[in-house]
Specification:
Length: 293
């Protein structure tokens, strides 16, 4: 599978390379324009598929941890809330793909024509997830596809695959995003492929409570963006592990190396652990800030 993902990343970059890039990356201004477009696009894709991860894991304890993403639940004993919603604004449909066994199980999350969650984000359309078994068991996976699905004003297409590759003493997953396309207004879009490994570093002692869980993310990605008539293509490699907490909507820690071809153009910094929606990148010695939505 790793070989296949590497092939897809390379093939996607080669095919998109047929389009002429509009940046003048040999100049200081050109590097900054390229870095801004690529950084914003990569961070947007990361944020959208992090949301997918939360929802895939959060459907129910039968398939995952339950209570993450939009599947918020009220913990009666402590009075605190896990996840985003305590009331639902979506419907769930489960279908056994083999009548003789519970798994593989297809679960469709239907947000209808528009569903506003407690995080203020509007989701519409459908997410379809096929689980081979409970995601806490090593070897099991969940493959997600999208049907006319939007997160706010961004249409999401592609495939997201989550696989448990952990051991009895370590919870670890691979996350593959294959041929993603994030379509925006005015013909703007992002194309993205990603292969990451996510490993739990906090919260292992309380497996039924997601609120204290934290994961380190390592790996790489590649993408391109069509933005206001201009086209940019980039790749990233995680330099220091990104940190993802179920209690935070955004990646809160870690750095990425941003490249154009073989040349490093910028470094993206998600911060030192504080839960906020800002990412900074450094190019030509200048620091710029991106605000995530």
């Amino acid at each position: 599978m790793k070989t296949i993902m590497t092939y897809l990343l390379i093939t996607g970059l080669l095919l998109s390379a047929c389009k002429k890039q509009n940046d003048e990356s040999g100049t200081a201004t050109g590097k900054e324009e390229f870095a801004l477009a690529a950084s914003q696009s990569d961070a947007t894709a990361e944020e959208i598929f992090d949301d997918v991860f939360n929802n895939v894991m959060g459907v129910s304890p039968e398939v995952g941890i339950g209570g993450t993403g939009v599947f918020g639940r009220m913990n009666v004993s402590s009075g605190r809330m896990d996840g985003v919603d305590s009331t639902t604004c979506y419907t769930l449909a489960a279908k056994q793909l083999n009548s003789a066994t519970r798994f593989p199980l297809q679960i469709t999350i239907d947000f209808g024509s528009g569903c506003t969650a407690r995080d203020g984000r509007v989701r519409k359309g459908k997410i379809s997830v096929i689980y081979t078994g409970n995601l806490f068991i090593s070897g099991n996976s969940a493959t997600t596809t999208f049907e006319n699905y939007y997160l706010d004003n961004i249409r999401v297409d592609g495939t997201h695959k989550l696989t448990n590759v952990g051991s009895p003493d370590k919870i670890s997953y691979t996350i593959q995003v294959i041929n993603a396309k994030l379509s925006q207004s005015a013909g703007n879009y992002i194309q993205w492929n990603s292969e990451k490994t996510i490993t739990q570093v906090e919260g292992g002692a309380t497996p039924l409570i997601a609120l204290d869980d934290a994961y380190n993310i390592t790996g790489q990605a590649g993408g391109s963006v069509q933005l206001n008539g201009k086209y940019f293509q980039w790749s990233t490699a995680i330099a220091t592990p990104l940190m993802k907490r179920f209690s935070c909507r955004w990646i809160s820690k870690g750095t990425l190396s941003l490249k154009k071809g073989n040349d490093q153009v910028a470094v993206l910094d998600y911060g030192s652990g504080t839960c906020d929606n800002t990412v900074v990148f450094t190019v030509n010695g200048s620091i710029h800030e991106i605000t995530l939505h």
